[in-house]
Write a structure and sequence with these properties.
The protein is an alpha/beta fold. The chain has a single domain (2-184), classed as 3-Layer(aba) Sandwich (Rossmann fold), CATH 3.40.50. Helix content is 57%, strand content 14%. It has helices at residues 14-25, 32-41, 45-56, 62-72, 91-103, 118-128, 135-157, 171-184; strands at 2-7, 29-31, 81-85, 110-115, 162-166. The protein has a 5-stranded parallel beta sheet, sandwiched between helices. The relative contact order is 0.20. It binds adenosine-5'-diphosphate.
Length: 185
């Protein structure tokens, strides 16, 4: 049973690592980015509202995300744990999550912060070729990360479950480092 939160800039490898660990620990991988992209593709009301923000590299407004997370963490497949990837992305989302977990009588075991230098991120994102991965959007996503998401790191450093992991290593190297931390948590 593991409840994990992945933090880190766009392109840090959160999604890739979360998928591997989700399989290994048999816990659902909850990626707000994936949920939003599926909604955009299916042209649901959420997708229609979220699309322009995503295309511009801005965060989707909290009111579109918070209910979605609340619903998702109440589903029965999350009883054995979960990996949150891409949420929380600002301090108000982190505060909302803290309250929600308290309500559900749950606590996160570990907050994993994947660290990768900006210049490596830009290179990785440019080679990834997702729709929102053009240079202008990438720069904006990094700005938004520094402005809104970096403060989430201090939010968690106060509660003692935050662990930093070097994300500028081979895929396998990062997985090994993450596993070592998670198994201790
Ligand atoms: P990346 O980490 O590579 O930027 P994600 O798949 O996590 O990619 O997110 C893609 C986009 O989806 C973000 O740029 C943002 O517009 C939106 N998004 C994802 N998660 C959130 C969130 N928790 N709050 C607001 N917007 C989000």
């Amino acid at each position: 049973m593991k409840r994990l939160i992945f933090l880190g800039p766009p392109g840090a490898g959160k999604g890739t690592q979360a998928l591997i660990l989700s399989d290994l620990y048999q816990i659902p991988h909850i990626s707000t980015g994936d949920i939003l992209r599926a909604a955009v593709k299916a042209e649901t009301p959420l997708g229609i509202k979220a699309r322009s923000y995503m295309d511009q590299g801005e965060l989707v407004p909290d009111d579109l995300i918070l209910d979605l997370i609340k619903e998702r963490l109440r589903q029965s497949d999350t009883r054995g744990g979960w990996i949150l990837d891409g949420f929380p992305r600002n301090v108000s989302q982190a505060a909302f999550l803290a309250e929600l977990l308290q309500e559900l009588h749950l606590a996160a075991d570990c907050v994993l912060n994947l660290e990768v230098p900006d210049e490596v991120l830009v290179e990785r994102l440019l080679s990834r070729k997702r729709k929102d991965d053009n240079e202008t959007t990438i720069r904006r996503r990094l700005e938004v990360y520094h402005q809104d998401t970096v403060p989430v790191i201090s939010f968690y450093s106060d509660c003692g479950i935050l662990k930093a992991v070097n994300g500028n290593d081979s895929l396998e190297g990062v997985t090994t480092a993450l596993k070592a931390i998670i198994d201790q948590a």
